[in-house]
Amino acid sequence: MSTVIIDYGSGNLRSAERSFARMAAETGRGGPVLVSADPDRVRKAGRIVLPGVGAFRDCREGLAAVPGLFEAVAERVAQGVPFMGICVGMQLMASRGLEHGETPGFGWIAGEVVPLRPADPRLKVPHMGWNELVIDRPHPVLEGIGTGDHAYFVHSFHLVPRDPAHRLAHVDHGGPVTAAVGRDNMFGTQFHPEKSQRVGLRVIANFLAWSP
């Protein structure tokens, strides 16, 4: 079955497509990698990847603008298909986002997407560049990734889960910043695996092999 990367007009998906296709070819897992906004393809997908760049509200509205797409993603994930959210795609897993007002998400990870407010005023927002991961709890998609490994971030908001068990990893940017979340068949990264070199490719390979 295919791995479908959802295309709803949120940024250039070519880098993500290349990285997922490369790891699918190298591992023999995940089937063909397709970029699509077709709800019917989503309903037939064996894995779903939801990227996102920009503001929470814009991404949520972009999904809603494609007839049936939001519902197809929610339906397939409810059926247990492995799901991976990236950057704002991960944030959309939350109950709601507070960027440009209150906007509901999928509600899969109870919690809110809130602004970054570093305790050190010298630290800039957006949080942009490489940062050291701290692994909070083991997860199959983080296998082979350890505390001290680096990943690439570009964001001004982050997801704060209501249940701490749903936070799988964080980084320090004037305080703890959520780097990865997950529960059941759902996993998400605030960092961009397609831009995170060895660490990112390992995360992608692990996701393609993951059987929740």
Would you mind describing this structure in some detail?
The chain has 212 residues and is α/β, with parallel strands linked by helices. It has a single domain (3-209), classed as 3-Layer(aba) Sandwich (Rossmann fold), CATH 3.40.50. It is 27% helix and 31% strand. The chain has an 8-stranded mixed β-sheet with strand order 2-1-3-4-14-13-12-9. Strand 5 and strand 6 (103-104) form a beta hairpin. Helix 1 crosses helix 6 (197-209).
Write out the strand line-up for the largest beta sheet, numbering strands in chain order: 2-1-3-4-14-13-12-9
Helix content percent band:
25-40%
Provide a count of the helices: 6
User: Would you identify the CATH architecture?
Assistant: 3-Layer(aba) Sandwich
User: Which structural class do the helices and strands define?
Assistant: alpha/beta
- Estimate the mean pLDDT confidence: 96
